Please model this.
Amino acid sequence: AHRLECTRRSVETGTPQPEAYLTADRFLRDLDLIAESLEAGSGAAAAQGDLAELRHQARLFRFHFVPLEVRQHAARHLAALQEIAGPSGIPLATREERIAWLTEALLSPEPAEIGFSGYSAETREVLETFRTVRELQDQVGEQAVSTLIVSMTTGVDDMLVALWLARGAGLFTPGERNAVSRLDLVPLFESIADLEAAPSTLRDLLANRAYRRQLEARGGTQEVMLGYSDSNKDGGYVTSSWRLYRAQRELLQVARRAGVRLRFFHGRGGSIGRGGGPTHQAILAQPTGTVMGELKITEQGEVLYYKYADPEIAYRYLEQVVHAVLLVSAETSEHGDDAEGGDEIPEEFEKAMAPISELAYLHYRELIYETPELLRFFHSATPIDILSNLNIGSRPARRTVSKRVEDLRAIPWVFAWTQCRLIVPGWYGLGWGLSQWAEDDPYRLRLLQAMYGNWPFFQSLIDNAAVALAKSDLGIGSRYAELCDDPRAYNAVFVPIAEEYKRSVEWCMRVAGERELLDNQPEMQRSLRLRDPYVDPLNFLQIELLRRLARCADAGERQELEQALRLSVNGVAAGLRNTG
Model:
């Protein structure tokens, strides 16, 4: 007890205590010694009681309780590199130059510690992050924080810059035979273009001499994170889903050819527009070989309450997840470890999916990125400006002060479309892609129906879109659209949305063989019917509040209206069980 108290004081004050446990392993050894002593004597029963529970907790939680992960944008790392190394005349202008210099610098035995003085606040913050990781590991153990996620990874240099900064903080030591690394580096592929380039990026990364030492020091396992939110915002629901699916297969092939074990980290959001939907169904829809006895996914704060607040529901949810992981892993084992990876799906399924995705992508991009009136409509007809000021999420609503669609973060983007009951990120482009590919062709319609019945990925694609469509309400959405006083913006944005909504509903039902939307998901269908009478009035109240706020000039009254709007946002989100 005394040593534990010293350990606690050491962690809380940051001042080493002479009698404190330096690592959780030493504490565990003492517990094991006590248990062995009891079992050797007459205290076997005592060893199986509270002591056994304490040993289990110590193994599971150690001294840090839960592990943390650090995430930073690749551009922030690059800016730090250029400020630190650029003045020395090192060529860093092109990606090729950066890769060449970083590789040699990482392999060099010369000391590489980076100081803090003389740099901008932004660079000091980056350096301080790496130093804090090292200090946390020194204080409570390496497992406390051992993962760095490099967001918006676009090339090998993004990963090498992160490794170089890690080395400068003492987290990586190169050595031809005995390299030491205290940090896993995880690329995060987010945009459609980055997902398409991900296999070649990973191939080049695994072939890099310096990075191979990092990988070998971490046990030969490479984790890759896939971004569902930004890929959806970039390319729409259909293309995002398809590119994520293909990227997993191709990344798995690259890793197997390189003799590296690959673990996927799925950055799924709570809403369908950000990769949400039934988790067990999503697991079953993963490509063969990508789930091998383990699964790593994000659980958004918005879903924690209704998934885990009730112990029985939490147990049932975890039971479904474990069942799906075991089922998919067992099926993979039965088929054997194919060196090339890939699915056992009919070739014609994939040949159909490619043009459908391309058609959906072009239709989505035309509305979101090629319609000049889109942003005017979006700011007039949705509560995006209120959402941007809400104290939610871990980051600002926008990456920059610009008001371009590209700079708006995915969470408020999806949240705003959800609040106005149009939920564009959850289905837009699907109806166009299906109808343009299969219209007036009975064979292609039958093929789509076969894909729905025999391909878990495609069934999940259709079923999740159907839920988003069912949560959408064109009548309520039209009332929000009327808040936009620009007829050109209304016609350029809402009219295509309304047409695509009807088209998507029709084709979801045709493909799924339904007479009414969600006939194949009766529990969800019933749940939405029960909830809608309570949610709809909140939407009408929100519309009126937005209308009054737009006309209001009095500061005090505006404050009251904004508070009422925040409450309406909470109500609609709770009723739909979706935010962003």
The beta strands are 68-73, 145-151, 172-173, 180-181, 184-189, 221-227, 261-267, 296-297.
